[in-house]
Amino acid sequence: MSYKNFLFILLLLLLDNAVHAQDTLSRKVYEPNKYWIAKIPLLNLIDLNSPNLSIALERRLNGKNSVQFLAGISTDISTTALKPHDYSVVNGFRLAAEYRHYYHVRRKASFFLAADVFYTGYRHYTDDSFISQSTNIHYSDSYYLKKKMEGANAKWGVQYHSGHFMFEAFAGLGFKYKTVTEVGRTAPGDEHVPPPRLTDMNLGAVGNMLGAYTTISTPANFVVGYIFR
Q: Reduced to 3 states, what is the DSSP secondary structure of residue 7?
């Protein structure tokens, strides 16, 4: 092979590599809607049932579809003074997976419809008044209230982008299968002292109702996040 032929073949190889590199770069620029978003749902921090710190990761697959995964830990903010030796401030966890479809997509804002499945488990240290079966005397006892919930939701919301920062709000409706039990009571057979008749709905009492049953789920939140492009 002559010197000129060798240089010609080498030049062709260099040009081919340059074209492939440019094509790869073009494909990356051409897909601006594929990225990750790290999120913190702020209203989870003041959840009435179980305040928790959750972190979600959303993966935008394209301009109109994404998947999201959430994990969090629950905290017990009970003000009860006396606590057992096995008491822990971290008292539970939350897991969720979600699919989203975006519509009316704009450069900075878009609406979305979503469906998720979730599982939550936690225990809360509390106290209440009971009636002794043997003496008919009222007494106070401290114990753990354990809850497990699993279900699914349909949600509607809006997401707004400002540079690398993201803000979104959503609300929805779904169902959850809930199991609520009491653990650590002195006399589990004793009945609760009937509370005074209420003139309005007691959300705490409704949320702590014992048993295994299906009820509605009403998710709503305001979320902040950071976009990794």
A: helix
- The Cα-based distances of 211 to 18, 82, 191 in angstroms read 67, 27, 14
What does the pLDDT profile of the chain (229 residues) look like in tens digits? 554 555 455 445 555 655 555 554 444 444 567 899 999 999 998 887 678 899 999 999 998 999 999 999 987 765 555 566 666 778 899 999 999 999 999 889 999 999 999 999 988 888 889 998 888 899 998 888 899 999 999 999 999 999 999 999 999 999 999 999 998 888 888 888 886 665 455 555 666 788 899 999 999 999 999 999 8
Supply the pTM of this predicted model. 0.75
C-alpha 207: how far from its chain's center?
18
Q: How far apart are CA 37 and CA 229, in angstroms?
A: 9
Both tokens of 87, joined, read 């008491």
- In angstroms, the CA 35 to CA 161 distance is 13
Spacing of C-alpha 35 from chain mean position: 20
Q: Which one-letter amino acid corresponds to residue 101? A: H
CA atoms within a 13 Å half-sphere pointing along the CA-CB vector of 91: 21
Whole-number Å distance between alpha carbons of 149 and 166 = 29
**What's the token pair of residue 74?**
């629950």
